[in-house]
Amino acid sequence: ENVIIDSIGRDATVIIRQRNILERLGYTTFMIMMYAELEICIARVEARDRVYHKQITIDSWYLAYSNIATYKKEFGDRFLMVYNDDTDWKRKFQIFIEEHKNKKTIL
Predict the structure, then answer these.
(1) Which residue has the higher pLDDT, 14 or 28?
(2) Integer-rounded Cα radius of gyration of the chain
C-alpha cells in the first residue's frame, strides 16, 4: 500500500529519517512540497477555529522553506515543488506521476 506523510517540513532531519525507514522497507519515496506565500499561510491559520500563535506559523514557514535545497538534494528528481498560486499545478502533478510510472516506480 502507499503511504502519505503530511508534514510542515520544518525539520529536514525528521523527514529524511522517515524516508530512510520507508526505503529500507522497500518503498520508493517522493516529496511533493506545496509552496504558499507567508501571508497566505498566516491568513489560512488565522481562519481556523483554534488557538493560534502567529510567531509559530512564521517560524515554521521560514524553517520549512529554508530546507528546500536539502529536500531537492535528498529526493532528486523525486521532488516536486507545487506553487499554491499556480493554476496549472494539477497538470504538472499528473505529469510528475506519469514520468515516474514510466520509470516503473511504484507510487
Answers:
(1) 14
(2) 15
55-77 pLDDT, tens per residue?
999 999 999 999 999 999 999 98
Is the Cβ–Cβ distance between 105 and 28 less than 8 Å?
Answer: yes
Take residue 33 and report the three cell numbers written for it: 512540497
Task: Tell me which residue of 19, 17, 66, 16 sits closest to 38, measured CA to CA.
Answer: 66
> Residue type at 5?
I
Q: How far apart (Å, rounded) are the C-alpha atoms in residues 53 and 45?
A: 9
Separation CA 73–CA 12 (nearest Å): 11
pTM of the model: 0.77
Helices of type H across 33-67: 38-47, 54-66
CA distances from 44 to 41, 54, 80 (A): 5, 11, 22
Half-sphere exposure of residue 15: CA atoms within 13 angstroms, side-chain side: 25
